[in-house]
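Box 3.1. Reading complex inputs
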Amino acid sequence: MVTASHRGGASVLARQRARAAWVFLLPTLVGIALVAGWPLARTVGFSFTDARLTDLSAARFVGLESFLSVLEDPDWWTAVWTTVRFALVSVLLESVLGMGIALVLHRRFAGRGLVRAAVLVPWAIPTVVSAKMWAWMFHDVYGVINAVLLRLGLLSEPLAWTAEPSLAFWAVVMVDVWKATPFMALLLLAALQLLPEDVYEAARLDGAGPLLAFFRITLPLVKGPLMVAALFRLLDALRVFDVFYVLTGGGSETQPMAGYARQWMFEFQELGVGSAAATLLVLLIALLTAVYLVLGRVRLDVGES
Amino acid sequence: MTRVLRRVAFAGLVALVLLYTLFPFYWAIASSLTTGSALFEPRPWPAHPAWSNYTQVFAQQPFARNILNSILVSSGVVGLSLLLGVTAAHSLGRVSFRGRRTLLLALLGVSMFPQVAVLSGMFELVRGLGLYNTLPALVLSNLVLTLPFTVWLLTTFMRELPVELEEAAVVDGATPWMVLTRVFLPLLGPALVTTGLLAFIAAWNEFLFALTFTLTDAKRTVPVAIALLSGGSAYELPWGLIMAASVIVTVPLVLLVLVLQRRIVAGLTAGALKG
């Protein structure tokens, strides 16, 4: 009798709490619906119309026409290839470099705190600003990079780093790697610091060298965090816009998918076509994420703490 | 002997890391202090350091206005994100109810879809609300970047608070609102600083919306102003001015990072790994 009423009281309380939880969530849900849900739905909606920037109300439903005109455009496929290649190359370089820096910072040495703070600097600098800083260093005539390479005898004549499409791609990769490696390094450092010391002690006693210990112990143990961090960076890199815009000026040969979509929306004023391109980008990202999560067997643990 | 050699090699490695991360910033400072034709002869440090680029960027450009715009937009975004985020995080972090997991996954999804995917819809919304070329348009659109991760991050921090405090307060008859404001909020100070800082940096750096939803120089934020900075002649960019502007907006961020480094690292790792 007593226990039954007690249980009933608890469930009333639980229901009250759940109701309060939804009230607390309401402002945020409304906010997200307004700034994310609604605009996304409208973008997808626009992609089935011939909407032009000048008069959105005149938009007519045209079915898949906008999608077809994007898919038939060779510039689109150049953008797809640029974006995917950019994402894979940068994230790979960031992982390797980030792991290197994390291993250095994992050691105890005088001034480690300061070095760790210094490593964060590129991450804190706005993307546009770091792209401009690098654009100046990449300047074909007056840039310090060409000057140093010439002085070292590695080049016989200055290179047009940001004008030549094949070089510009690598210039953009270099800027992105510089900016995003700290993020990777810090996440990996956090993972490294959770590793148990005694495993390494045992490995040393068994005569394993540092290289073997790294590949047999460290790498398997930090694989989970590494895969999650790489996924975050991959998603970031697939929606890249700023670095390309500042460094290459949005030429059709060195343009990411987001740049292509924006160009159609606002420069060519074909909002419908641009929206179709943006929708395709979302689909591609969703697809790649799904493949990554399945193939990498990554678990995003969102449930209980 | 090998130990000495190893220590030297390790010090060299640290130096290399520092050179790699800091050189572009150093080069921007050096260039910003160089004027006239000296800018076009790369040398390790400015021979005759001068401040004229710094004074000119404020005299020739509405750069003070741009900085003010960025401060207003970023502060607005941080304020709104924290206000909305903290109540939502209370629900998601402390109460188990049906659909919580789905909501968290949806938040994660929103924080990952590309900005350009909402661009045309947001443009219509901004214009429909009569906000085109105004700062509120940027506050509104930036929420799509900051709100999901603010909620997410505050949820992870909220989960770490001891359950006993909450139980004691509930036994004393506190409503959920009182638990949030009287018990949790005072404890969440550091978490709010961390989250607010990350949201501030995200809003301060935002480029795509700021580029698309503003039209006039006076409404631009700092990244757009720097990206579009051009000189008197159409042929040569004023690199000295651009570098001065870059250094001006970077120095406060670098100082913040140096001072709040631990907090930032805690925020980044909590947001990315505990999720």
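In summary: Residues 1-6 of chain A have pLDDT under 50 and may be disordered.
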